[in-house]
């Protein structure tokens, strides 16, 4: 799409003429010019209305066969239509290639990305390799839809939260001012009250006590106000702490969602951080991945008849101390079967191949893999 | 890791461990001597005995860097793997010949015995044990540079909320549950025994008072658990008890996290009992059958009987926990151990799934200067009490400094 | 299986489990290393003495062979002449086994006797210790009390060293007992937990009793056919009596483990045709419980089963020895009947269970065979004769002279292991001079033989009185000396 250079040549204020209907601003001071980012050919508002109101049509400029829609016509922001066009291209590319610095492994990778983005923009602006560049861009866009959306959302959020924060801060300042005012008021009132108190006491008491009463009154006052101040401080701090932790949590939720994209590296962008775990907001598992009370060889009962253990149930002292036979049952049965299916001769031979010190995998891993093997079957009762 | 009684998740678990611990060089060093029972082949010159060779293999894996803390009982060093300077460990050197004439002290034995068997993300990892010259015992422990919960509770510059408390409690409860699943009582749960790893994970440490569950009819000592965290049955001298003694301590830690001061802090054992009664209610035969038969039970003046506290009390005292959290706390602080929640029940509680969600461990409030604190915590002497002669209640509980 | 992974985290699995071959290789290595060192040390000692005798007035250096008195010079010159004969790995093993039995005896002598579990732990400590150490380097008589004391500490049966030492016969002092503690701990690679089969047996018995009471709980993966408590109970009551070798209709494969067992006490009147009464079953379970426990206390301790099998396998194998049909029955309730009745292996679960069952039968049979093979040394005159030769004579001559003294500071930790602390050495020498028995190898060969003969006459009479098995005369008492 070569820019309409001839249109550019035509500039000026009063002598500006619509290239389509040839009416000039001189005659029609309210005339508005519009452009369409398809071809950037300028025309006046009435021409646009006239030609495109009934649906898409070809650009009326001679030699330009672009199909234009009325909806996409807009005012020109920059005087130079070339700048206008470059800005449009830039905006479009940036919306697709909207990776953020923290997504890259290194500063270097980030810089490379920025450079690459500029090159793509330059290609599109200057019309070099347009087809290939556009192709790459489209492919990237479709492959990284989620990450693009997430980053867009994040940008929007950042913008709005910045605004919010500003209003929030103003609100806080207002509250602080009010609180200070209130506090001052309280103090004033209390001062008044205590003065009155001192006066009444002076009036009632003997003359010798006067100094003492006055001193005391002052002290009480001081104590009261400092106590109140520290109490208020404490409450304020607590509130601040809660707010902080809430705000942090909101932030976290955002990051977690962004990470949800498993970055299908289209090959266009290099050096992206490997996203370790997609962690789609797993529910919190208090047991940390272990299934409680799961057993394979036995089912634990609440009670086992035993002439040896039964007296214990009647022993008040042991009961009062909390001794729990259930714990004993659980232990004896676990120990009865722990390792029943461990065949030492095989497992140890595998684990410590003769003579090779430290060449085998760790026991834990081995245990885990063995466990995986044993569950691979249908032994899971659930 | 150790595979916990889990079949379904071992792989992910393993990954978790690898990311949180230093995992001494996955391929060679750890396996060579710690994990395997391959003994080195006979050397032609036989300069050293086999046991010495084995020990040296372990000893030479680590390099001691600097001293982090020193107590009468142990010195803690920062160290690292020889092959991997970035992998830090804490080396706790126990002075064997210190003062104990009956050989290695019980707390060192207990700590080594139980940590050798336990492997869980919320329990401090014992990577290796070796001896150095002059018969010193060196425990190579997981490096936990972010201090402990006590530090966070006390530091008024640190603000935290309900979600953070939930995250910490969750990790603590998992650690305790895993101990109990392995039939081990910790018997000294308190904030300064809960250390924090670089990634924010809470780790249960100091197994100097730990022991395995007692078989029926066998006695255990009641002189365990630091007083403020000691459950009423131990204060009353019970000799047969269960895992829920640790749950009470957990409840006290929970309350302390919410209040930022110890909840029930008695000056003496008697004072502790009095304060517990005041706070939670007076134990009676009605609310705790058999309590009056416990060896050290003291009848309360009938005029001072405090009724058992209900949910309202907990909700009023701990508004931050919310109604569900208050309910959980109440189930952990039940006077009668028979009615108290077990570790498993604690983890099955609804609080964990109610809002707010526990904070991700990476985002938990942190203090930068925790390394020194770890040094202090690890030099502290664990249990000093033996199981049969409880009359010389030897465990020093120094609350003024909170560490001895 | 979840329970198996639970066991795999234990230090017993990680560090102290072996194949038969690796166990044998380990013992051979230890023996070879120790023999080399012993030969070198004795040679050094002889050279030192030769130079000492030539330079000094000719008095023998007491420390080299313990200062045994007049016969020292003769025995030394003898040793110089003939090549030093070291113990073989098998002889070492026999020696260790003997001292393991002594631990049981010693534990019995305390009032109250030390708990079975403490003694069993001590025995396993001793056995683990001698995987990397040789009796030629460290005499078991020195290590044994230390292992037992350590076990009291690690198994929560705490008593003071003083108290403990009072129970040890002879003139073993508290310091003697505690001296090798660090060495022992280091050899145990600082793993103190021993997984025993005792508690597991209790669990199995609890389940069997529940089944007998009609409260049996089906195993999670057991075939549904055996799943009701009532069926479990009925099958239990229909079991053939323990001593017969007849196979049941349900278990044609039980012959593997049904050879005659130690349950000779069984005078039960149960026959395979009539179902037993509740009392008879209760009695049978109690008897099986007792006999299995006895096996676990003896055969399981002294043989290699702890190294080769898991505690769950050990107690089940012992139950198979004590009451084969009962053991088979119990296993059936868990994993189903053996797979040879191949008609019903259609679904995968039972197929896997069957495979596990088949493998387990093999393992349990091997373990049971090992348990059956055990005969207490002390009650077998033939074995005692051999032992006397090994410990009394051979070990005496190939004891590493540089390791006799294990006094505490520096007595084994790292490179300091071989160092002597002058004060302690002096104390030993003084004790020897005072003729107070000097414990440490102070007896001449001829004297040993004489005593052995004397003991032979007394054999049987007071065998269990002398805790250290007086026949072996390593531990002298005052009266015996001259």
From TrEMBL, chain A:
Species name: Aspergillus saccharolyticus JOP 1030-1
One GO CC annotation: transcription factor TFIIK complex
Keyword annotations: Kinase, Metal-binding, Nucleus, Transferase, Zinc, Zinc-finger
Alphabetical list of Pfam families matching this protein: MAT1, zf-C3HC4_5
InterPro entries membership: MAT1/Tfb3 (IPR004575), MAT1_centre (IPR015877), Znf_RING (IPR001841), Znf_RING/FYVE/PHD (IPR013083), Znf_RING_CS (IPR017907)
Stretch list, region Disordered: 150-172, 222-261
Residues of the RING-type domain: 18-61
One GO MF term: cyclin-dependent protein serine/threonine kinase activator activity
Protein name as annotated: RNA polymerase II transcription factor B subunit 3
Classification via PROSITE patterns: ZF_RING_1 (PS00518), ZF_RING_2 (PS50089)
TrEMBL record, chain B:
Chemical reaction(s) catalysed: L-seryl-[protein] + ATP = O-phospho-L-seryl-[protein] + ADP + H(+); L-threonyl-[protein] + ATP = O-phospho-L-threonyl-[protein] + ADP + H(+)
All copies of domain Protein kinase, residue ranges: 62-352
UniProt-annotated stretches for the region Disordered: 22-48, 355-385
Active site residues of this protein: 188 (proton acceptor)
Keyword Oxidoreductase included in the entry's annotation: no
Pfam families: Pkinase
Compositional bias (Low complexity): 27-38
Cellular component terms (Gene Ontology): cytoplasm; transcription factor TFIIK complex
This protein's name: Putative serine/threonine protein kinase
TrEMBL record, chain C:
Keyword Calcium tagged: no
Protein name: RNA polymerase II holoenzyme cyclin-like subunit
Residue spans of biased composition, Low complexity class: 244-277
Start and end residues of each stretch annotated as Disordered: 44-87, 238-278, 435-482
GO BP term (any one): regulation of transcription by RNA polymerase II
UniProt lineage: Eukaryota, Fungi, Dikarya, Ascomycota, Pezizomycotina
Stated family: Belongs to the cyclin family. Cyclin C subfamily.
GO molecular function per UniProt: cyclin-dependent protein serine/threonine kinase regulator activity
Domain of life assignment: Eukaryota
